[in-house]
Structure formats: C-alpha cells, structure tokens
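Hi, can you check this record?
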Amino acid sequence: MAAVVAWAGLLAGAAGCTGESGAGLDRMLGKAPAPEDVVRVVPDDGAKGVGPGTRLRVRVPDGRLESVKVVRSQDAEETRVPGRISADGLSWRPDDDRLALAARYTVDTVALDGDGNRSARHTTFTTQVPEERFIGYVTPEDRSTVGTGMIVSLEFNREIENRAAVERAVQVTADPAVEIRPHWFGAGRLDFRPREYWKPGTRVTVALRLRDVEGAPGVYGLQDKTFAFTVGRSQVSLVDAARHTMQVRRDDELIATVPITAGAPKTTTYNGKMVVTEMLELTRMNGATVGFKKKNGKGEYDIPDVPHAMRLTESGTFLHGNYWAEDVFGSANVSHGCVGLRDVKGGGSDTPAGWFFDRSLIGDVVEVVHSKDKEVAPDNGLGGWNMDWEEWTDDGSVD
C-alpha cells in the first residue's frame, strides 16, 4: 500500500485564472503592466497562416529577458528552435530566420521588467499551409509518454467535407490491442479513444496517410507520417468542489489528499473529466483573455507569474499554484473557475502545487465533482471521456 501524503494545515490561496478579485490582488501584486508591454513577441499571439518570410522576434522595452523557449511542432514532432538572447538582455532571435511551413510554434518567455518584477508570457502561432492543401495538427507528440487519459486529437486547418475519406486515412492502433474508435467534433476536429482509459504500458501508433486524400473539393492532404507514444502509469485525481479537496490516486491507490480552492459561486468550476494538455512551470494569466473584464476592458485579474500551471480546458480552466491569497485552501471556493493549490512565488517543489506538478504527465485525468456548474463540453480540451461509448461511436463515423 502506497504511503498517503496528507497536506494537513496547509490552508492558503486562490487560483490563477482564478484568484481574488479587485483590491485584494492589487494589494498583493501591485498594478502589473500588461504582458505585451513587458515581453513583445512577433508574430502576434494566436496568429494563423504566418508567412515563411516573417521574422520571429522577442524583445523587452526595458529590464531583461531571463529565458526564451521556442518549440516548433510539425507532424506530431516537437523541435526546440535554437536562438540566443542579446548581450544587453533586451532581445532574442533564432539562429535561423526562416519559419517552417505548416507548423505550430509556441514561445515561452520569462523576463524582468524595469522595476525588477518577474513576468512570464506564453504565445502560439501557426504558419502558412500551401494553397489547396490541408493538414492535421496532432495531439500528443511523437515519442511522448502520457497519462492514461490521453485522447488522440487532430485539428485540421481547413474544414473537412469528405469525412469518410479522411477518417479512413488515419489509423490508430495499440499494443496490447484494444478497440479504438473515432469521433468528429464538427468539420475541423477528429478524436480517437478506447472505451476506457488506456492501460499503463500501452504503446499507441498513429499512421497519417493523408497525402493526396481529397478532404474537400480541390483540397488535398499533405501528410504521410507514422508516430507513436507510450502510456505511462495511471494517475487520476478527484476534485471535490464541495469538500475543497483533491484525492490523487496512482495506479488505483490513494497517495495524497490535497486541500484546494475551486470556482466561486458566480464563477464556478466545470464538473466532469478533464485531461491535462499543457504544463507550464510559470505563466501569465489575464482575465481579459477568458472573458473576465472590468468596465474599462482590462482583466479582472492579471497575474504575471502563476506557478505550476496545468491546462484542463481550451476555454481556460487550469489547475495551478497560488501564492497571493490566504486562508482559503480546504475551506472556501474563491476562484474564477480554476482549481488552485497552495504555492510560493516562483513555485516551490515542497508545496502542494509543486508536489503535484512534479508527479503529473500530460494526459493525466482530473475529474471535478459537486461543483454547481454544468459538465464540461466534450470538445472543450480533451473532454471526450464525458461521453459514454454509445454516444462516442454514434456520430456517423466509418465502421
């Protein structure tokens, strides 16, 4: 029987897309400059179809860059983009100025502003796909080790009209063998999963035979690629929003009960099964990006250095560390919808948030119960586990 970690007496915090509002945060954090004022990234966050001649640049108007990490994802393979910070610390540029076609780029930066305050920024953009071609951006990455809740997901850059042909050109198999079925979310996304969570140790292979497949009139596939990933140990965490706790189970054994804070009465947390899709040691969270705005259009909160952030939904639900509020963990729900765990500024490995982050994988399942909110939509992140098997397989997919 595994030893159970009990975080007794650890009662502090709110959450990061969550967190206190108004004067409470202002007192703790001061009036932080907007993220684009601290770290400026070109191309813009969320840009699509960026041309190969566009120059990727990162700079700060004052202060200095501490770290810059740029990753290119192409055909389910991640590649670190080499580059260097200038001697004065004000800018970063890649060693090769050319951007790859049909790729997704992520830029993660940490900088000190002119007053010495640390701030993080996370941006993404995608590059141009040749005319009359389509590709699928694939989750997870090639050669990755993932949690048992991972769902294979393809997001297409163009709407697919000939779904049957595209579906037949994508083959997902497992060793040991298990039935895997597809499900379409609209015309732009195709997901695959088994009936139950993957068994630990399973090796999953994805073959994309999309090259020259006609996905829509006159629009043909570009990819011919096989990749694989491995399923690691099982870790499923149960967040009880009413009890303000999270039980962490590893290979079906309870290993920890952690005090948490969830969504406040007016900004409740989704119920249901959610899957970790992104892990960030430090990131910035601004309420304006997820619809929490003041009358002046600025975010209800703007926290420049949220530690140990794990994305659960595409709409902005995270499980993350918190250092800026007190006396709420295990006793009150005060967030804007995220799940918060106690942490320290900069992130600590011996805090509940650091402990959980260090033991988590992309693909782990976090299930929320007893929140006064609806169930998370199955296409909001990798939420497909909230559909029963009959519903998953009854969408007109090819048998």
Notes: Confidence is low (pLDDT under 50) at residues 8-16, 18-29.
